[in-house]
Amino acid sequence: MNAALWVAQGILALAFAGAGGIKVFAYDKYRKVSEKNGPSGVSHALATFIGIAELAGAFGVVVPMAVDIAPWLSAWAAAALATVMLLAVIYHLRRREMPGPPAVLLLLAAFVAAGRFSHWH
Questions:
Q1: CA 16 → CA 37, 39, 54, 69, 91, distances in Å?
Q2: Distance between CA 61 and CA 113 in Å, rounded?
Q3: What pLDDT score does 95 carry?
Q4: Fewer Cβ neighbours under 10 Å: the N or C end of the chain?
């Protein structure tokens, strides 16, 4: 189970580092992709905030456990990422877009959160 959790954590870290990095460091590219179906309603400031949260989550889901300093933070980071993805699923459904990718990340983050929290109970 530990190996499966580490694989899921790695996937989450890569996915959120990429998604957050685009929002923070390449906003124009993010905007072009996000507005294919019309205006997204996401301001530059909101996209930057979400991107920073995603980058922090990417870092937090792996690093605390990897360096064994406050490893419980990885479980909380996964729970926070699951929350962000739940909001993303709702956002995409409201825009009548496919919520598949955020739903998969939601499930992965929930799996990691549940798996890592169970270690402390």
A1: 23, 23, 5, 21, 17
A2: 9
A3: 87
A4: C
Quote the CA–CA distance of 60 and 81 in Å, as a whole number.
10
Provide long-range contacts, Cβ within 8 A and 24+ apart, for 27-31.
none
- Checking if the pLDDT of 120 tops 70, the result is no
What are the phi and psi torsion angles at 107 (to 5°)? -65, -40
40-95 pLDDT tens trace: 788 999 999 999 999 999 999 999 999 999 999 999 999 999 999 999 999 999 98
Question: What's the whole-model pTM score?
Answer: 0.89
85 and 103 Cβ atoms separated by less than 8 Å: yes
CA atoms within 13 A on the CB side of 62: 18
Q: Domains of the chain: which residue ranges? A: 2-118
pLDDT value at residue 36: 77
Kind plus residue range of the DSSP H or E element containing 83: helix 72-94
